[in-house]
Structures are given as structure tokens and as C-alpha cells.
Design a protein that fits this description.
It is a single chain. With 735 residues, this protein is mainly α. Among the domains are: 7-95 and 105-160, no CATH class; 161-306, no CATH class; 310-399 and 452-572, no CATH class. 71% of the residues lie in helices and 0% in strands. It contains 32 helices and no strands. The chain is globular and about 110 Å long. The two termini are 60 Å apart. The model is unreliable at 1-6 and 520-558 (pLDDT under 50).
Length: 735
């Protein structure tokens, strides 16, 4: 929503209309449709159960499932002439030219067979008569059946076309992300040379993707294998998407956006190119010119379709995170902690522990960083934390919960590896979570300027208790919606239902805020009082009053309605979906390339030391985490590394704990450090620049704290998880 006050014309106006209105509206409809489909499955299940309770009869064995369609009369003869049929069958047997070879059935056997058929026919008629009588005895059944089957037909259409919904969402979101140069890269293009290099490589990358999609479509046509209508639509949408992205990138090359600053260099310009462009160029070149496999990228895009439900759930969670930013719920919850004036390190530790739960529901740390990174950064900085420390906390905010129930990523791992179960991985994942969170607290306190700080209870306790009151309505909304799903729809909150339930909860909270004219949260205004261990002074009261004016409901700068908030949150969601899902799709292509070159054949087969094997696996997982998204990485590792690890005697649960924590270490490790890139995208380049400027005069650690702190937390955790279970024979894995 930039430059709303400026006059637009021509292509700039078209770009604004597309990015802020057309794509936002389409994505909103698709997100709502996904919610309806997900909730529809729950509602239909409850309708079936209700139908059974209303119209089922245990005494007669009549079930509602038998009555969902109008009973049809059996086509068999209810009262046949047994003697005539026996006579006719015996004549037919006698006329059989193979009778002398195979023999014929006796008259008694023929009669018994016909009598058995008559009995089966009679049972069919009896059931039909019983069903008709049951329907006549329950006049409302036909109306209920019409409602239930009509509802089933509506949501069944959406369920069967999830793949099309996902690709359509990606088409609109990716186009918007390209128009707004919103793709994920090591830095944002700012100078003239940045935009030249950015656009040139984007043309090449999208050209490879366009060519691969067309090659795949042609190869399927030439194979003679019939395509379903859905498959054909998906092929065409991929081709249209990448052709459009190529044209947009070509236009941006010919007429680049206005630079935001002067200067620049060729080396830095290459850092502004999106990660997915590098992935597309490298895999496209290899598949096309080195392997004679031009359809390779298009084929591996199919992995996205296979997991369409998961990616749609991720889109819902991103939307829920953007909706969360439009409510005051986080600020109000934190108001309970603020009076205690905890040291930034202690407060951050508590925030990271709390962040583990929503991360677990997403199954991917990057998703949570995008959704809540800005909120976490603001709070840590406002608590008196260094900007660099706040950036480090933001990048790590999604790294601790990926091993907790009900993480979707673990569900994918268990589905691809029969050697482990979700219960097993969740069980040991709890130990990993306790380890990483404890290490963060210990290490952050070691570098803290103030090791411990807490306000006087006589001052903080009443303020904290008073702050709990405004939170109660939001808790009530959550509880009521949860109770509705649990008892009205017989659905518990788990890894499959949470992505559907959370947006509904957040929509209701946003609506509640706007109906009572609550302002949206404001950006950080500066660090809050660090000396709240005594009664407030006059100056503090004045400052608080000034801040309250900025957040007042009648403030024209802060007041807007529900639909405006919905538009803002959905518009943000569009860009994040377009950037992240495309990156995930290309990471799967990278994984496919690595699999095709049979990289695991280079893995030694005669290693005698399991410590060396574990070390090789640790290094490989960190590397994979640096270049791939978690879902694509799990698919690759399951097919290549996991079988080798099992053969060397590494316990499957141990292997996947190493893998998951290795991924997270890779996501915070330069030069790529995906979680840092997503944190910057969530927070903004201005804040990152301010963080760097703030510590230019300090020591090496504080200058690079946002990089160093996550690594020195995750690396010891990685080493302990990798070597301790085998060295000390823990958990019964290596007895």
C-alpha cells in the first residue's frame, strides 16, 4: 500500500490495480474457499453422524448411509419357476460342446444354485421394502437427505480440485510478487545496476521455467497417455504463469523501476537476484543442456501438486499471521508481562517458548517468521533489547517448534518413512525443544548487559492483573470457536484442522476489534521504560499519555474498519505466498536434480566408524538446510540419505532429529540464511540498516549478533543431539 497519495497513470496504475485489488480479491476468495472446503468436510461429517442418530435404527439394522440415495427395486425375479429354470439350465448344459471334457452339474446342484439365487433376491427385496417403509415412517428424511447430499456435492467439488485452487493461488500471487519485486533474495534491489542484473537473470530464470513447462506438456501429449481435464488445466496454468513472469521481467529490464539510491556495484547487484531465480537457472541449464531433460523443472513442480493440501494450509496460516497483525491481541497479552520489566533476554526467551506452538502448527519455521516476525522484533526492541539481538530472536522465532506436536513437517516425515511414527518423533522432539530453548537462555544471558531484571511485585502485580482484563474477550472468542468445532462439528484442533480454525478465530478477533473501535497495533515508538521498579514519575505518566493518544480509537491515523483491515492483511498475504511458494517449488526442483545426478553414490559405503557417518550426515543436513525449503528437503532426504543412514545402523528417530535440527541450523547460517531473509522481509530493510548502524562502533560479536547468536545456540544443540545419544547410549537407540 505504498504511495496511496500519489497520482498514478498508465502502467503504474495498472500495476497498482492488479497488485492491490485484483490479485488481493482473487486470493481472498481462494482463501475463503479453502476455509469453506476445510470446514465443509467437518460439517459434512457431522451431518452424516446426525443423520445416523435421527434416521438410523439399530433394532432393524437400518443405517442412514443406506438411505442417502432413493432405494431402487432389485432387477431379479422374486418368485421364479424353479422347475422351469432347472429344466432350462439342464438343457443348456447338455448342449454345451465342452460338456464331454469338463462334465456337467447334476440336477440337484443346479436346483441348489437356483434356490440360493432366489434367497439372495428375496433378501434384496426385503431390504428394499424395509427401506421404503423406513422412509415412509420418517417424512423428513428426504428433505434432510437433499440438504446433506447437496452440501456434500458443493464441498466435494472443492476437495477434488484442491490442486487447481493451489496453482491458481500461486499464479496470482507470483505475478504480484514479481510486479512488486517482492521475491526473496539476499538483498533488495535499490540501484540502477541492481535492477538491470535482477531483471536480466529473472528473464533467463522464468524463460527456463516457461520452456520446461511447455516441454512437459508436449511430452505428455506425445506419449499418448490420456490427460484428465484437471491435469490439462494445471499444465496450462503453469505455462501461462511462467510466460507472464518472463514478459514482466523483460518489461522491467527494458524499463526498470526508479532506483531508490545512487551508486551500486556489479557484485552487490548479483546479491539482489531472488533465490528462486538462481535455482531456476541452475536446474534449468543442467536439465536442458547437460541431461537432455528439458521437462525436468515442470515434472518436479508436480511435487507441489501432490502436497496441495499442505501448501494450502500454509497459505491459510500466512493469512492468519497477517490477520494477527491487524488485532491488538499480541500487544494486550504482552501487556501482562510488561509491568514486570523483565530483561530483554528473559522476555525474549518467554516469547520464543510461546512462539513454538504456532510454529508447530505450520510445520515450517520460515512461515512463522513471515507471519509474526515483525511483532516479535518490535516487542524485543521495545523491552530494551539491542536491534541486533531483536533480529536474532526474530530469525530464531520459528526454529524451536518444528519438532513439537502437531508439526505438519513431522507428519510428512512419518508418511514417507515407515521406520518412524509421529508419536515417536513428537516424543523425542520435546527433548530437542527443551535443549534449544535452554541453550538460548543461557547463551543470551552470557552476553547480556543486565543479567537479571524484574520490577517490584507490589508495583507490577496489580498492573499485570489489570492488564489481564482486556485479554479476556479474545480468550472467550477462542474458546467459543474451539467449543463450536469440538462439539458442534465433533472436530478437535490438530495438525490438520488448526490451519482452518485459526483464520476463523483471527477473523472473529479482527471483527471484534473493529466493532468496538479498537485501533490496530502501531509500530514501535522506541524503547519502553527500563526502570519500572518504582512508582511512575510525572514524566513517565506524560509519556504514557502521549503514547495513548497515538493509539486512541478516535485517532484518524489509527482508525479503519474491518474490511480495510481484511484488505491490508490479504494484500500482505499475496506477496508472501507468491515469494515463498515459488521458492519452495524450485527447491523441490533442486532436490530432484541432486537425486538424478545420484549424489548419494559418492557417499562412502565402507565407513567403519558410526561417528564419522554421523558427522557426514550433520554436514549434509546443514548444507541442505541452507539451499532448500523444509518440505522439499524432507522429500529429497527420505529418498536418498535416509536409507543409507539406516543401513549404517543409525536409529531412524535419531536420524530425523539430526535432520530437523540440521535444517534449522542451515536456515540461520550465512551466506543464504533463509530465516534471516524472511525476517528482513517481515521487518523491513530500514530496520535492518538501523540495526547495523547502531553497532558500528562495538565489538565483533555485537556488530554481527543477529548472525552469530542463532548459530552459537543451534550449533551446540546440533552437536549434542548428533553425538550424545550414541556416545551415552541414550533412549535405548544403541544398546
Amino acid at each position: 500500500m505504498h504511495n496511496n497519495g500519489q497520482r498514478r497513470s498508465g502502467l503504474a496504475l495498472l500495476r497498482h490495480i492488479w497488485t492491490e485489488w485484483i490479485s488481493t480479491f482473487v486470493i481472498l476468495i481462494l482463501l475463503l474457499l479453502t476455509l469453506i472446503i476445510g470446514t465443509g468436510e467437518m460439517v459434512h461429517g457431522q451431518l452424516l453422524r446426525m443423520g445416523e442418530r435421527l434416521y438410523g435404527d439399530a433394532a432393524t439394522g437400518m443405517q442412514y448411509s443406506f438411505l442417502r440415495a432413493e432405494p431402487t427395486a432389485p432387477d431379479c425375479e422374486r418368485n421364479p419357476d424353479i422347475d422351469a429354470q432347472v429344466h432350462a439350465q439342464m438343457q443348456a448344459n447338455a448342449a454345451d460342446e465342452f460338456a464331454d471334457i469338463f462334465g456337467t452339474a447334476s440336477e440337484s446342484d443346479v436346483r441348489a444354485s437356483i434356490l440360493a439365487a432366489k434367497q439372495i433376491c428375496e433378501e434384496k427385496f426385503q431390504f428394499h421394502d424395509q427401506a421404503i417403509q423406513h422412509i415412509q415412517a420418517h417424512p423428513s428424511l428426504k428433505m434432510y437427505r437433499t440438504i446433506e447430499t447437496s452440501f456434500f456435492g458443493i464441498f466435494k467439488f472443492g476437495t477434488e480440485n484442491r490442486a487447481i485452487l493451489l496453482v491458481l493461488m500461486v499464479v496470482f500471487a507470483a505475478i504480484s510478487a514479481t510486479l512488486k519485486t517482492h521475491h526473496i533474495g539476499l538483498r533488495v534491489p535499490a540501484t540502477k545496476i541492481d535492477f538491470k542484473v535482477y531483471s536480466t537473470l529473472m528473464v533467463v530464470a522464468n524463460g527456463f521455467l516457461t520452456s520446461s513447462s511447455i516441454s512437459q506438456y508436449r511430452s505428455v501429449l506425445d506419449s499418448g497417455v490420456p490427460m484428465s481435464g484437471e491435469t490439462q488445466v494445471i499444465y496450462w496454468m503453469w505455462m501461462i504463469l511462467f510466460a507472464t513472469l518472463t514478459l514482466i521481467s523483460l518489461f522491467q529490464l527494458i524499463k526498470p523501476p526508479a532506483p531508490t539510491r545512487e551508486g551500486g556495484s556489479l557484485g552487490l547487484a548479483f546479491l539482489s537476484v531472488p533465490l528462486y531465480a538462481y535455482m531456476a537457472i541452475s536446474t534449468g541449464f543442467s536439465f536442458t543442456f547437460l541431461m537432455d531433460y528439458p521437462m525436468g523443472q515442470g515434472i518436479y513442480l508436480g511435487q507441489l501438486i501432490e502436497f496441495s493440501s499442505i501448501f494450502l494450509n500454509l497459505a491459510l496460516f500466512i493469512w492468519a499471521g497477517m490477520l494477527l497483525k491487524q488485532t491488538r491481541i499480541v500487544d494486550l497479552f504482552l501487556n501482562i508481562l510488561r509491568p514486570w520489566n523483565l530483561a530483554p533476554e528473559t522476555l525474549t526467551w518467554l516469547i520464543l517458548i510461546a512462539a513454538a506452538l504456532p510454529t508447530a502448527y505450520t510445520g515450517a519455521s520460515g512461515i512463522f517468521v513471515i507471519a509474526a516476525g515483525a511483532i516479535i522484533y518490535k516487542e524485543v526492541w521495545n523491552a530494551g533489547g539491542r536491534r541486533q539481538f531483536a533480529l536474532a530472536a526474530t530469525a530464531m522465532s520459528g526454529s524451536m517448534g518444528v519438532v513439537l506436536r502437531p508439526c505438519l513437517l513431522i507428519v510428512v516425515v512419518a508418511s514417507l518413512n515407515k521406520e518412524v511414527t509421529t508419536d515417536m518423533l513428537y516424543h523425542y522432539g520435546l527433548y530437542v525443544f527443551l535443549l534449544t530453548s535452554t541453550l538460548f537462555l543461557v547463551i543470551s544471558l552470557f552476553f547480556a548487559e543486565n543479567k537479571f531484571r524484574i520490577a517490584a511485585p507490589r508495583i507490577a502485580a496489580p498492573l499485570s492483573l489489570r492488564a489481564f482484563g482486556p485479554v479476556l474477550p479474545y480468550i472467550l472468542i477462542f474458546v467459543l470457536i474451539w467449543l463450536f468445532y469440538k462439539y458442534a462439528l465433533d472436530t478437535n484442533m490438530n495438525e490438520f484442522t488448526a490451519p482452518v480454525m485459526m483464520p476463523v478465530i483471527l477473523l472473529m478477533m479482527v471483527l471484534f476489534d473493529k466493532l468496538r473501535h479498537e485501533p490496530a497495533p502501531i509500530p514501535a515508538m522506541g524503547q519502553w521504560d527500563q526502570t519500572l521498579d518504582h512508582k511512575p514519575t510525572a514524566q513517565q505518566i506524560t509519556a504514557s499519555s502521549e503514547r495513548s493518544l497515538l493509539t486512541a480509537p478516535d485517532s484518524p491515523l489509527r482508525q479503519y474498519g474491518f474490511f480495510k483491515a481484511l484488505h491490508l492483511s490479504t494484500s500482505e498475504t499475496v506477496g508472501h505466498i507468491g515469494a515463498l511458494v515459488i521458492l519452495m517449488a524450485l527447491s523441490v526442483s533442486v532436490g530432484g536434480y541432486l537425486e538424478r545426478i545420484e549424489i548419494m553414490e559418492a557417499f562412502p559405503t565402507d565407513i567403519s566408524s558410526i561417528f564419522i557417518v554421523i558427522s557426514l550426515i550433520v554436514a549434509l543436513m546443514i548444507f541442505v538446510g541452507m539451499i532448500m525449503d523444509p518440505f522439499g528437503a524432507v522429500i529429497l532426504i527420505s529418498a536418498t540419505v535416509a536409507p543409507v543412514a539406516y543401513q549404517y545402523g543409525i536409529h531412524p528417530a535419531h536420524f530425523w532429529m539430526i535432520t530437523l535440527i540440521g535444517f534449522e541450523l542451515g536456515y540461520v547460517t550465512p551466506p543464504v540464511a533463509l530465516n534471516h531473509l524472511l525476517a528482513r522481509q517481515s521487518i523491513g530493510d530500514e530496520e535492518v540498516a538501523a540495526a547495523d548502524a547502531e553497532v558500528r562502533h562495538k565489538s565483533f560479536y555485537y556488530r554481527y549478533e543477529r548472525w552469530i547468536l542463532p548459530m552459537i545456540v543451534m550449533l551446540p544443540a546440533m552437536l549434542i543431539i548428533a553425538y550424545a545419544p550414541y556416545a551415552f547410549k541414550l533412549f535405548g537407540w544403541y544398546e
